[in-house]
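Lab notes, practical 5.
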Amino acid sequence: MEKFNRKEHWETIYSTKALNEVSWYQPTPETSLSIIEETNTPKDAAIIDVGGGDSFLVDHLLKAGYTNITVLDISEKAIERAKTRLGNDADKIKWICVDAAEFKPTEQYDLWHDRAAFHFLTDIKEIENYTQTVYNNLTNKGSLVIGTFAKDGPLKCSGIEISQYSTEDLESTFSKLILKESYKVAHPTPFDTIQNFTFCWFKHL
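Output from the prediction step:
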């Protein structure tokens, strides 16, 4: 049986679907922005958006005055689309094209944000690699803001099976971090459907 090529899959998605033709489309990522504001992360802090693709989060972070932003995505096409949209502002961002499961950071981050990338990791080894990377590369007192499909959310996204998480599941998975807040979020898709998410804010103490 041919091994699933995750990168190839996402390159195809971003090459064939318009921005508002994907379920995660969100012109204003209100939940993420609200939680990030609650973390009181300084404007010059090192922030990474894992699985950021061509998400609008980076636009809003720049507008809010954050100056040290990294966007990571598995898809070169997604990053190209984000750069095109941002124009000259793209030069203010550090861009990394790599699978989140294989990411080996070269710096520490004060805030690690992940909306709907982590839940695509279903292999236990990949999950362990991801969590260990967060532990090793989140600064002392840094924040992890993570959003995944909830237990009553979708079982698949873009044809791929995902891992559903409750707050308790995420707390157990990131057991070396301290849970500060959790949120149940109903995300309206462009197709007039609702996807239920679990969001958590953790602190590295």
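Observations recorded by the TA: Helices lie at 6-16, 30-38, 57-63, 76-86, 124-137, 167-173. The two ends are 44 Å apart (CA to CA).
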